[in-house]
């Protein structure tokens, strides 16, 4: 029985709890609905509403939960326990309340008193949140502490930090070529030739990691600094020596190194032979990984194969990411297929040859999360592409706070929902947030970034 209804915000108070504060529920009209439910054709209205509302993407089988003439308490309970609500709980609905803000349950100007099912949806969703205890009072969050074993991590990527693009035997990679040959594709025409100069200032960087009391340092190894041509026939010893010094410095500060094997910087000679479009790269990548494990695996216990594989593949379906091959509708699929195979091949290599001896691990989830979006069904654009093939349109709630990055909004409830979903879906597998952050236009007075991390 629903004995009381009120707004329960996903954030349970705090920075974004404007919905609970500004909204109220007209209980008398809910009673009016109960008294007159026999006059409403619930099934027909639910069908039309589910078809039109992108939040409810379900089959007609759900409609069998409803009687033609009335919605009983037993049917409501059955509906709440259905597979549909498992899907709803994975989605964000809080910010949609801003658009509905408790619309009148009944259109009183019409004699037939048709039910506004958008409002009914909100009532039921809030009922689910309330009954399943997903929200806790604000005071329960006041003294939360991080659990034992929780690790704070900081991350960099070789091309974005090292610089030294043409020294000590390093080869050319696709981002060198992309930014040198087509600099106009970068908004400020910048590149990674110098970056933050970490190749020469890595000790200072690692000291900063130590001073900030982080537990881990995630960084990537630049493929072309180890193998200038990309292939194992020519090894650059100066590159090996640099990363040995780098890792030793991390360990000397009591930090755990987490190493990414590939962070977008494919050696140009490999790209000239097809890059990630060529199935041969599966073994080429394994040869490179084998060399890295052999030289550094006794010091490194946490490994990542490919950073953001979707964006790596996108470089073969769009012109805005290296190597910038706009073979849309084909390139990203071929590249994605080979990336998955290369990842699996390297995982098996490590399991077979190194894990027992080196005691390292790939057995964890790594999440790069910056923002969240809403989605609905529909085609995107006219060109064949994975975006169009997905039949999904992405959009944002305009009320979500902006950042200094055009595509990023502050959506903490999306991040929390993702973490909870992964915990359940993957049986509480160890999880690392390996990238997260907020871009700002002001480097010093970065109130937006402070808000991003607080919420």
UniProtKB/TrEMBL annotation:
**Which domain of life does the UniProt lineage start with?**
Eukaryota
* Record keyword Hydrolase present: yes
InterPro entries linked to this entry: GH, Glyco_hydro_1
Q: Offer an example of a GO molecular function term for this protein.
A: hydrolase activity, hydrolyzing O-glycosyl compounds
Q: Which keywords appear in this protein's UniProt record, sorted alphabetically? A: Glycosidase, Hydrolase
Membership in a protein family: Belongs to the glycosyl hydrolase 1 family.
What this protein is called in its record is Uncharacterized protein
Q: Which organism is it from?
A: Rhodnius prolixus (Triatomid bug)
